[in-house]
Amino acid sequence: MRGLPKVDMVQTGEMITELRRKNNMTVTDLQKLFGFNTPQAIYKWMRGETMPTVDNLVILADAFHVSISDIVVVTRT
């Protein structure tokens, strides 16, 4: 029996970092895109401490020219 799907927050954070670099974007670029006053939320995403909201995932996917499923890493437990 296959396990239930689970979002791997650390690997998802690594994917956000990788896609940001591949698109030649800085954390400051993303901070400006989202209109955040500080970059802390983005750093938390990249460390896998928190996940972007669905709305923010849509924006990230658009900025990185990928689908949300290319950002979110899902494993089975």
Number of helices: 5
Count of distinct strands: 2
| Sheet with most strands | 2 strands, antiparallel
Report the span from N to C terminus. 11 Å
| Order of helical and strand elements | EHHHHHE
Class computed from helices, strands and strand pairing: mainly alpha
Please provide a written account of the structure.
By secondary structure, the protein is mostly helical. The chain has one domain: lambda repressor-like DNA-binding domains (434 Repressor (Amino-terminal Domain), Orthogonal Bundle), CATH 1.10.260. 58% of the residues lie in helices and 8% in strands. It has 5 helices and 2 strands, in the order E-H-H-H-H-H-E. It has helices spanning 9-22, 27-34, 40-47, 54-64, 68-71; strands spanning 5-7, 74-76. The protein has a two-stranded antiparallel sheet. Helix 1 (9-22) crosses helix 3 (40-47). It is elongated and about 45 Å long. 14% of the residues are buried. The model has no long low-confidence stretch (mean pLDDT 96).
List key phrases describing it.
single chain, 77 residues, mainly alpha, 434 Repressor (Amino-terminal Domain), two-stranded antiparallel ribbon, 5 helices, elongated
Question: In a few lines, what is going on in this structure?
Answer:
The chain has 77 residues and is mostly helical. 58% of the residues lie in helices and 8% in strands.
Question: Topology, pairings included?
Answer:
Elements: E1 5-7, H1 9-22, H2 27-34, H3 40-47, H4 54-64, H5 68-71, E2 74-76
Antiparallel strand pairs: 1-2
